[in-house]
Design a protein that fits this description.
By secondary structure, this protein is of the alpha/beta class. The protein has 29 helices and 22 strands. Helices cover about 45% and strands about 15% of the residues. The strands form three sheets. An eight-stranded mixed β-sheet has the order 7-14-13-9-10-11-12-8. Helix 26 crosses helix 27.
């Protein structure tokens, strides 16, 4: 029996011989399909290549009718060939003709063939063709045959590209007309506006040598490059790049991929098939991408960008070029990428990097987290943008609305330039209010607190003049760590938060994980309604050790401070009593062991489940404070998924229904003399904040960037007049009171 990898090595060696022979590219393709068919014991081997307009054309075939070559064409998604291209992954069928995507083309003569194995031909992560084999018998191809054909397809990608079967301009012109400056819409992931020139993020180095002569020598090269890769990440961790807190944990989690034994073993196995070290990295990279795109877990799928980043860096170390490709950056660089890892973002010169545009990406991906920490505007999931853009193109990135303008017209450019200038002027005006109190014209004090979740947010407390931290989201530290964060690490974070608050209130929300917030060290199972599923305090009650573990860190960090602990997603009184009892058990445990001597602990809850509002008389006597979580509360109140773009503007928190509900909560809290506030997106917009003040809120918490605008609004209003006006509106049948409140603000000189 030949050793593992011997079969692919033989095919690759013969492929190299064919590619080295003189002849036209077409004659080489014809020889290659015959060679593959013979070596894989297939009666048919065909190559389809992508042409303009997303058309796959049959370029060569052994076994099908010769007249079908350059005549048979299929669109992406059409037929089995189009299905393979659309999915970007292999298709292995014992009876191809029974597959629902099968399309019969009589000119090919393929009706006598039943089994089919097809793999995409990938270049730089993009499908450029399809390679397939067929047999008359009904059979499932083995996993070894699938991997062998994928390896051959990777080598084919280099040949197809170098031989220029398809003019790259043909593909470009078929998908985008450069004469029409387009507007693209994506998902805003890091706020801000940037105007600049495109730099294409192209970390992938062209691999010239794919087929190896000496596998052992290639393995030695791989081991050396991996050692250099880990050393470079370690250098990043110890450098003075402001690496601290969660920012550091992102890179530490990234480092864990680099030392993963499973990844290293796959690289060696790929070398055993006859590939060079560089080609082996590409081969494993393609396989990882195919496997991970099938995973439903969003956290694991987002780690694909980290693996791509590591693979690209490893190829650079193998080639002797460990520096990123984009070195000559203009002063106003906007980086465009399919996706990125966090370390790749840190490679760019900070002073020149103004924004990032990703074709893919997700709000909880590592690169987005780092971009937010650095204040870099970022828009993701911008479909078709990468194919439309060229290096040096002028672009406007609107990270607030998720809009991209390519080669913007003069009027659009002028409008955004004015917008940026206006923003800068407003920032200066709001900065002047930093040390002034948020007191209305008739002397009512409004407490303006800040939402936070990263240590990078903490300096904004003093910069904005916020009264305190109304919501510190503790889950981020858990989301970026591949294991449960050590208690010492948690204590250090919570101490830094309290130190930054410097005597001001800081409310720590216990873990709000689950739903769309996946942590890697807990098994994640898909749920039909994750927002209403197993999340937040529900996990804490089912896993009391986890709640006690976090409570211990909070208690130890908070000794000597007024510690505020807030429990999320409480739906009834029993849940709060049980969760509070768990925290108090930890208090007693620490006291018994002499680890907790002096403490002031206040335990409250978030009101975000409507059912709890109808138990206020029972629960308020048990609470030290309550905070209304407007984001979840509104989606539950209106049965409206706030992540669904079709429903984004369907319901308004400034409506009689929502405001009446909130007014009921205000009345009950005041009657029981329990401190209350509201944290959520609504608190951060001046007109919504004005409405909340009008129904009785005197403490609201918002993003740091909203403190200035809301404070300016507060200092310009008369609270008594506003309250009297609001009392006349709550029984109105209006869908929204936004228009009436805007007119009231204009009539009374309120800055909204």
């Amino acid at each position: 029996m030949p050793p593992a990898g011997a079969g692919p090595r033989i095919v690759l060696r013969r492929l190299r011989e064919v590619m080295a022979q003189p002849g036209t590219p077409q004659s080489q393709l014809d020889q290659i399909v015959s060679l593959i068919a013979a070596n894989m014991v297939a009666e048919v081997c065909s190559i389809y290549l992508l042409r303009a307009g997303e058309i796959l054309e049959l370029f060569a075939s052994e076994g099908l009718n010769p007249q079908a070559v350059h005549q048979t064409r299929l669109r992406i998604g059409e037929g089995l060939v189009g299905e393979i291209a659309a999915r970007g992954s292999p298709l292995n069928l014992a009876d191809a003709q029974s597959h629902p995507s099968f399309v019969y083309r009589p000119e090919t003569g393929e009706e006598i063939y039943h089994s089919l194995l097809g793999v995409p031909i990938l270049r730089g992560g993009q499908v450029i063709g399809v390679l397939l084999i067929q047999n008359r018998t009904y059979r499932n191809y083995t996993e070894e045959e699938v991997e062998a054909l994928q390896t051959v397809a990777m080598v084919m990608a280099e040949l197809v590209t170098s031989a220029r079967f398809i003019d790259p301009e043909e593909l470009r012109e078929g998908s985008f007309h450069r004469g029409l400056p387009p507007q693209f819409e994506g998902l805003p992931m890091s706020e801000g506006i940037a105007i600049g020139k495109v730099v294409l993020h192209e970390p992938r180095i062209e691999v010239a040598r794919l087929i190896a002569d000496d596998p052992e020598s290639e393995k030695q090269r791989m081991a050396s490059a991996l050692k250099e890769l880990v050393a470079s990440i370690d250098h990043l961790l110890i450098s003075d790049e402001g690496m601290a807190g969660e920012h550091r944990e992102v890179i530490e989690a990234y480092r864990m991929f680099a030392v993963d034994r499973g990844w290293r073993q796959k690289l060696d196995d790929a070398i055993d098939t006859g590939l060079t070290a560089e080609a082996a990295v590409q081969r494993v990279q393609v396989d990882n991408r195919r496997r991970m795109m099938k995973i439903a877990d969003p956290y694991l799928r987002e780690r694909l960008a980290d693996l791509d980043d590591l693979s690209n860096r490893l190829i650079r170390h193998l080639s002797g070029d460990a520096k990123p490709s984009a070195q000559d950056m203009p002063e106003d660089t906007i980086v465009v990428a399919s996706n990125m890892g966090p370390a790749e973002l840190l490679d760019y010169e900070r002073s020149r990097l103004k924004g990032v545009i990703l074709s893919d990406g997700a709000p909880n991906s590592h690169v987005v987290i780092v971009a937010r920490a650095l204040g870099i505007p970022l828009v993701g999931r911008v479909n078709a943008f990468a194919a439309a853009v060229e290096a040096g193109d002028d672009v406007i990135l609107d990270g607030d609305e998720g809009l991209i303008f390519l080669q913007p017209a003069a009027d659009v450019l002028n409008s955004y330039q004015e917008n940026i200038a206006s923003r800068e002027a407003r920032v200066a005006q709001f900065a002047a209010l930093r040390d002034k109190p948020a007191i209305t014209r008739d002397g009512v004090k409004i407490e303006l607190n800040m939402n936070a979740g990263l240590t990078v947010d903490l300096p904004r407390l003093d910069e904005t003049g916020a009264d305190g931290i109304g919501l510190f989201r503790t889950e981020f530290q858990f989301m970026v760590s591949s294991t449960l964060p050590r208690i010492e690490t948690q204590i250090d974070l919570y101490k830094r938060v309290l130190a930054a608050a410097n005597g001001r209130k800081a409310i720590f929300r216990t873990l709000d994980i689950g739903g769309d917030k996946v942590v890697p060290f807990m098994k994640h199972e898909g749920e039909e309604n994750p927002a209403m599923g197993w999340r937040a305090v529900r996990i804490g009650l089912d896993r009391p050790a986890l709640l006690r573990y976090q409570a211990r860190a909070l208690l130890l960090a908070g000794e000597g401070h007024d510690l505020h602990i807030m429990l999320p997603m409480i739906a009834d009184v029993a849940e709060f009593k049980s969760a509070r009892a768990t925290i108090m058990k930890e208090v007693q445990h620490l006291e018994r062991h002499g680890k907790l001597k002096t403490h002031s602990i206040k335990v409250g809850c978030m009101l975000e489940v409507p059912a709890l509002a109808f138990q206020l008389k029972a629960i308020l006597p048990l609470l030290d404070f309550v905070s209304i979580g407007s984001n979840d509360l509104m989606q539950f109140l209106f049965a409206c998924d706030r992540g669904n773009p079709r429903l984004a503007n369907r319901y308004d928190i400034i409506s009689p229904a929502a405001l009446s509900f909130l007014k009921m909560v205000v009345t009950e809290c005041n009657a029981h003399q329990v401190p209350f506030g509201l944290c959520g997106e609504a608190a951060g917009r001046p007109i919504e904040a004005m409405a909340l003040i009008g129904i009785g809120f005197r403490a609201i918490s918002m993003p740091a960037s909203s403190i200035g605008p809301v404070k300016a609004m507060v200092r310009s209003l008369d609270c008594v007049a506003l309250t009297e006006y609001m009392d006349t509106l709550l029984d109105q049948p209006d869908h929204s009171l936004r228009g009436k409140l805007r007119n009231f603000a204009l009539d009374h000189g309120i800055l909204i």
